[in-house]
Task: inverse folding
């Protein structure tokens, strides 16, 4: 049995992401779908595994976040509880569906998890997805540790069902990847005995947002937002603790740092607190009560000035002259995750007017130590493909004049020397779209790289565009049979697959390329000489072509062989 | 209770996650508050891994000058995280280096670390070196390095849980065929540190 299903009414030591998965199952989650992305991946990985033990639960890895969002939207419309989870930039992909889900609303509780990544531990940006809740006008909950992630997930399903709106559950890396004590309840085994289907009640004046319907639905959404406001004001996990005239308002992982810092500064009994977990709609009445009580309020939140702006608006609306100190005053930066010291120091500066000095050992060996940058694993097939292509382009004398648009995956590491074969990157699938642009804009040779999973995720529409609009470049699809970087999730073209997916078809990438009538070769990157002969003609010509480099990720191959 | 904060650092693939899981589960059993966090960037293997541990506190991060202990599975990694330590930090450092791929490929070198350790030895009073990987191999596999380090940490009383409790928890997390080797690894780490004291 999956370890997350074990133990009832006891304490477990869980990752924030595991706590979300466990709480979802305890909440009778019926259907979930996701595309993997760090730091959210463990939620989906665990739910994928859990379905093997629970006949009444269904999970699927969708080809991208938008598809996943659409799957759970429909599931919820049938009255079933549903969940999707993604990394922060995944919500950009899913945003088209997400923005209208609030309009048509949900039936079964629907939770959308976004895992943000301050400090870009494994991402291309550190966007603050709290603004997505405001943009979509739906409720948002923000956990600060694994226990609160567990509790808020349960609340999220309840709130969603009550308001008939999706609820955004927003974590960050330090919440998703923190491990701590979580008090779990019981698994609804009876509920999961069978997969009981829901039923879709047609209601075109709700579920088909043509303009006339959309206008009405937006009115309803705004009414619901008012109801959500009341829930936020009275939410028991929004903590208002009135003590002295100094106050701190915080959300997310910062809550932990604030509580520890106050204890270390001996100020726990002096400082009033507004610790928020239900942060959209912003509980303005609660904030007003807080701001009326304190003279100075320090705002502690990573990334954007979300709470800070809301507090300033609250103060303005109620003519309060509480001094609000935050990023505007330079107490905190708008980038990177915080450290406990940063917060302790800011509190001391704000309330004691003194900086905290820390004795940091006076040594710095960083420039002498060997670097351990992320690298392609020993034996990785991507490296072989890169080397091969580089060699041919060098032989043709055009390597120096070649642009390498790249994409999101292990192979982005082609950026590292000695390869240096990654020149431009925006997001999932961008290698192909940007190649279309480079083709028009420059005379340079273009060789783009994309992985198998990324190709299915966001590469298909742009490859069609490339063909239809007569673009000329060579696309290399690095088909390693898995979504490697996020921990080996399935991909539609994989031949090596887990037993659980044995009935799923194989969708070979070459068939898609054939259907588009694009010249291509399929190669084994380890067979250098014979492969070079195959590729060279494609790279010589200035026409659209595809090279499919097929060889399994060596880690995945080992893993799957062990399973069998 | 006074907070205990520390770092476990090393290289991807050395089993730091199991180390913190055993410690965490043992604390949970005894109702001791603990929070840990693991940061390992993008690489599947070979990158720098750091795990922050906070016992009796809430913060899943150890700032500069804050660590009560630094457990390094690799000697260069101990030096990399030195800014996060302070005068009284207890160091346990596995002596066996792990060469980065760039060094193996010849595009970088792995320096002799002894002059660096020589420089810091008067500043810190509690640095313990241990032939971690050698002991792990003696127990049966180099992979048991994490448990050697767990035993070593336990010998220094860094955590508010007993060696017995750690060993019992360890067994609940491992398949039975690995029990004997890991118990041996734990004891080898434990006894090695005891022999230095």
Result:
């Amino acid at each position: 049995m999956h370890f997350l299903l074990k133990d009832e009414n006891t304490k477990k030591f869980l990752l924030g992401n595991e706590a979300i998965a466990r709480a979802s199952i305890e909440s009778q989650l019926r259907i979930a779908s996701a595309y993997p992305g760090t730091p959210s991946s463990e939620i989906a990985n665990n739910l994928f595994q859990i379905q093997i033990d629970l006949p009444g639960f269904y999970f699927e890895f969708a080809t991208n976040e938008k598809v996943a969002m659409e799957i759970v939207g429909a599931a919820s419309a049938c009255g079933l509880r549903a969940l999707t989870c993604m990394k922060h930039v995944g919500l950009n992909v899913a945003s088209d569906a997400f923005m209208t889900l609030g309009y048509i609303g949900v039936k079964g509780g629907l939770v959308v998890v976004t895992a943000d990544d301050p400090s870009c531990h494994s991402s291309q940006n550190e966007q603050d997805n709290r603004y997505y809740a405001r943009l979509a006008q739906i409720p948002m909950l923000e956990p600060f540790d694994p226990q609160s992630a567990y509790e808020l997930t349960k609340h999220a399903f309840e709130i969603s069902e009550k308001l008939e709106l999706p609820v955004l559950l927003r974590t960050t890396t330090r919440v998703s990847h923190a491990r701590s004590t979580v008090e779990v309840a019981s698994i609804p085994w009876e509920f999961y005995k069978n997969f009981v289907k829901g039923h879709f009640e047609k209601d075109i004046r709700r579920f088909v947002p043509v303009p006339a319907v959309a206008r009405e639905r937006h009115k309803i959404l705004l009414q619901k937002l008012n109801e959500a406001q009341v829930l936020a004001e009275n939410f028991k996990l929004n903590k208002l603790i009135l003590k002295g005239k100094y106050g701190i308002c915080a959300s997310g992982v910062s809550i932990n740092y604030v509580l520890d810092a106050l204890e270390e500064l001996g100020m726990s009994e002096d400082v009033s607190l507004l610790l928020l977990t239900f942060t959209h709609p912003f509980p303005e009445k609660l904030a007003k009560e807080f701001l009326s009580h304190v003279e100075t309020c320090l705002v502690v939140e990573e990334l954007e000035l979300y709470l800070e702006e809301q507090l300033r608006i609250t103060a303005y609306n109620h003519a309060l002259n509480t001094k609000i100190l935050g990023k505007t005053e330079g107490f905190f930066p708008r980038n990177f995750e915080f450290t406990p010291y940063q917060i302790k120091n800011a509190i001391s500066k704000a309330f004691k007017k003194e900086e905290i000095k820390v004795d940091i050992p006076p040594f710095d060996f960083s420039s002498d130590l060997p670097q351990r940058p992320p690298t392609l694993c020993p034996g990785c097939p991507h490296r072989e493909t890169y080397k091969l292509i580089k060699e041919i382009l060098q032989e043709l004398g055009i390597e120096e004049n070649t642009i390498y648009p790249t994409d999101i995956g292990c192979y982005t590491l082609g950026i590292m020397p000695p390869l240096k074969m990654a020149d431009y990157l925006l997001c999932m699938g961008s290698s192909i779209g940007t190649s279309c642009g480079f083709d028009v804009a420059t005379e340079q040779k273009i060789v783009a790289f994309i992985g198998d999973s990324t190709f299915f995720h966001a590469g298909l529409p742009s490859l069609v565009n490339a063909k239809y609009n007569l673009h000329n470049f060579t696309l290399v699809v690095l088909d390693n049979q898995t979504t490697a970087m996020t921990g080996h999730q399935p991909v539609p073209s994989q031949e090596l697959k887990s037993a659980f997916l044995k009935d799923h078809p194989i969708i070979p990438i070459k068939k898609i390329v054939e259907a588009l009538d694009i010249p291509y070769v399929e190669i084994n990157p380890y067979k250098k000489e014979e492969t070079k002969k195959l590729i060279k003609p494609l790279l010589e010509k200035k026409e659209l072509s595809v090279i499919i480099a097929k060889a399994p990720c060596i880690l995945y191959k080992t893993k799957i062989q062990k399973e069998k | 209770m006074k907070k205990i904060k520390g770092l476990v650092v090393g290289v991807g693939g050395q089993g730091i996650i199991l180390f913190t899981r055993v410690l965490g589960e043992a604390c949970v059993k005894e109702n001791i508050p603990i929070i840990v966090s693991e940061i390992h960037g993008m690489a599947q293997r070979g990158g720098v891994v750091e795990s922050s541990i906070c016992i009796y506190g809430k913060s899943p991060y150890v700032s500069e000058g804050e660590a009560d202990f630094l457990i390094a599975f690799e000697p260069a990694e101990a030096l990399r995280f030195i800014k996060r330590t302070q005068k009284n930090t207890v160091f346990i450092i596995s002596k066996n280096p792990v060469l980065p791929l760039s060094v193996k490929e010849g595009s970088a070198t792995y320096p002799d670390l002894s002059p660096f350790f020589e420089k810091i030895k008067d500043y810190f009073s509690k640095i313990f070196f241990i032939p971690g990987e050698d002991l792990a191999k003696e127990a049966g596999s180099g992979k048991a390095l994490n448990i050697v380090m767990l035993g070593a940490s336990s010998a220094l009383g860094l955590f508010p849980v007993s060696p017995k409790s750690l060993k019992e928890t360890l067994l609940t997390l491992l398949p039975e065929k690995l029990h004997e080797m890991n118990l041996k690894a734990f004891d080898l780490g434990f006894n090695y540190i005891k022999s230095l004291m």
About this structure: The beta strands of chain B are 4-11, 34-39, 48-55, 69-72, 90-94, 127-130.
